[in-house]
Amino acid sequence: MSSQTLGGGSSLFSGFTRLCKGLAIVLVGGYALIQFFPGAVTYLALVPARTIPFAWNLITAGYVEQSVFGVVIGTVGLLFIGKLLEPIWGSREFVKFIIIVNFLTYVCVFTTAIALYYITRQESYLYTPLSGFHGALSGFLVGIKQIVPDQELSLFSVLKIKAKWVSSIMLLLAIATSFFTDDSASYLPTLIFGTYTSWIYLRYLQRKPETNLKGDPSQEFAFLTFFPEFLRPVIDPIASVLDRMLCGRSETSNEATGYVLGGDPLPGSDPIEASRRRERGARALEERLAAERLAAARGTEDSHRDATESV
């Protein structure tokens, strides 16, 4: 499969969907709001000590950025990754994914903060405002891993990497950075839980419209695939236990509702169908990028023509 360049070319800065633009305005608006009204952060961000009774911050925290760096990364990531995922998933599923992943991420962050307080008795875990869109962004990377795992991405024609490793490398860099920063608690749990909850949703809960079945049972999207080969023998027992604890009933439910009927797997439940879904996703991505390149080429030709006529 051909590599796609992330950087360079006017087509890179076109094709943003209306939905992504609207969500980007929400992120920028949330940042502006807490700049003009700093007190609003205690009501919109996740403050574990105030989550009860202010439970709505489990929802709003995912859309409030507290720094310029956060709002820039959130907006850019949403626009550029969203224009690849939304046409493949559909607008409704794209919004559903963001809402569910953001909510589950901050539920996990809240639970972790409470647990850390009881372990360490440090009140900072209770009163530090936590928020940001980076949980959903890490989930987008998992979505790219699922749809086009073998797509080779090129960053400014310098660094080439397969899409299936982008999520893992992002987490590795975040964990490494946390040893040299004082505010790692404000982003690291969100990135980790955003990655894991998005995988849980895509693996077991996302309904496929073409088959009306849930999840992606293919081995290529198993939890082990986030880790390099030499670590998989160590991770396999842990992943198996977590799979049975968290999603064991999902497998039974799938068999009961149609993954297997009369001993024959239905469409969408076997690795071949999963591979076909990935091929469709990759084909949709290729078609979209080709359309953007064509539009950019036409725009360049029109510009040259106008310049010639004016001369």
TrEMBL record:
Subcellular localization(s) per the UniProt record: Membrane
Main location: membrane
Transmembrane intervals: 23-46, 66-85, 97-119, 125-144, 187-205
Gene Ontology biological process terms, A to Z: retrograde vesicle-mediated transport, Golgi to endoplasmic reticulum
GO CC terms of this entry: Golgi apparatus; membrane
Key words of the record: Membrane, Transmembrane, Transmembrane helix
Record has Membrane as a keyword: yes
InterPro entries according to UniProt: Rhomboid-like_sf, TMEM115/Pdh1/Rbl19
Tagged with keyword Membrane: yes
Membrane topology per record: Multi-pass membrane protein
Domain of life, source organism: Eukaryota
Listed Pfam families: DUF1751
Region (Disordered) residue spans: 258-281
Protein name: Rhomboid-like protein 19
